[in-house]
């Protein structure tokens, strides 16, 4: 006699965990994008914002720990859902019937894995300074970490800028399908909220794509001044 899985480990529970953690990560992506867009306001504005976060100290590390936990839960849930779907149909159909699905839906796992790898690279680049270490650790005129100079100097290297653009395109596909699917999983049924299960994911993903891609491209094209970077 098979043992019944705990609710959170059931198919519905796992999909719900993936939906909730996905929406939490979307919130972080939007806030992170708004913070990064301050590069257009200049060195003073962006460095002051970075200093504000740095001064949060323990609170910042608690937030980072929570974000890491959410990220890991999302990835683990995605793999569990994929495994459950495969187990439910261990033998492929003899005659496959073509299904009308979007590119975003068909590439969810692949785009998610690439985006996860990009997140690691992003942390190594701008947070830990392992990548492009020569532009990390400089101080501005007020003795603050010169985030503005680091970002501009980093994205003036076309391989780095291109890697970010590619990652953001994949993130667009992941969000376009994932956001709408999350609301579908969470059982949004009110007619006035029907848009959340429709084009909302694509719209939000488009906003994130334009906002995030604009930064490396404008810097690479020399439209953002380097100053003393």
Description:
The protein is built from eight helices and no strands. Mean pLDDT is 85; it is low at 93-100. The protein has 229 residues and is mainly α. Helix 1 (11-36) crosses helix 7, helix 1 runs parallel beside helix 8 and helix 5 packs across helix 7. The longest helix has 31 residues, at 58-88.
Characterize the biggest β-sheet.
Answer: none
Briefly note the CATH topology name. 3 helical TM bundles of succinate and fumarate reductases
Instruction: Give the second-level CATH assignment, the architecture.
Output: Up-down Bundle
Q: Compute the CA-based radius of gyration.
A: 20 Å
Cα end-to-end separation: 67 Å
Domain tally: 1
Which percent band covers the strand fraction?
A: under 5%
Helix content: 55-70%
Question: Which structural class matches the secondary elements?
Answer: mainly alpha
Shape, principal axes of CA atoms: elongated
Topology pattern, helix = H, strand = E: HHHHHHHH
The total strand number stands at: 0
Pick out the low-confidence regions: 93-100
CATH class: Mainly Alpha
What integer is the average pLDDT?
85
Outline:
The protein is built from eight helices and no strands. The protein is an all-alpha fold. It has one domain: Up-down Bundle (3 helical TM bundles of succinate and fumarate reductases).
Topology of this structure?
Elements: H1 11-36, H2 43-54, H3 58-88, H4 103-106, H5 108-127, H6 147-155, H7 158-185, H8 200-220
């Amino acid at each position: 006699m098979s043992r019944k899985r705990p609710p959170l480990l059931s198919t519905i529970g796992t999909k719900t965990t993936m939906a909730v953690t996905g929406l939490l990560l979307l919130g972080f992506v939007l806030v992170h994008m708004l913070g990064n867009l301050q590069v257009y306001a200049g060195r003073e504005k962006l460095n002051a914002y970075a200093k504000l976060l740095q001064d949060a100290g323990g609170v910042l590390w608690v937030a980072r720990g929570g974000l890491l936990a959410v990220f890991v839960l999302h990835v683990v849930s995605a793999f569990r859902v994929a495994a459950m779907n495969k187990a439910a149909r261990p033998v492929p159909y003899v005659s496959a019937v073509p299904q009308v699905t979007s590119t975003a839906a068909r590439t969810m796992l692949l785009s998610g894995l690439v985006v996860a790898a990009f997140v690691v690279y992003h942390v190594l680049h701008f947070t830990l300074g392992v990548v492009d270490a020569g532009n990390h650790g400089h101080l501005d005129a007020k003795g603050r970490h010169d985030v503005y100079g680091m970002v501009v100097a980093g994205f003036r290297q076309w391989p780095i800028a291109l890697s970010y653009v590619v990652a953001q395109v994949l993130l667009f596909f992941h969000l376009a399908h994932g956001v709408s699917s999350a609301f579908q999983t969470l059982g949004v049924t009110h007619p006035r909220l029907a848009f959340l299960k429709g084009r909302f994911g694509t719209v939000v993903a488009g906003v994130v794509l334009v906002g995030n891609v604009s930064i490396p491209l404008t810097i690479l094209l020399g439209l953002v001044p380097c100053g003393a970077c």
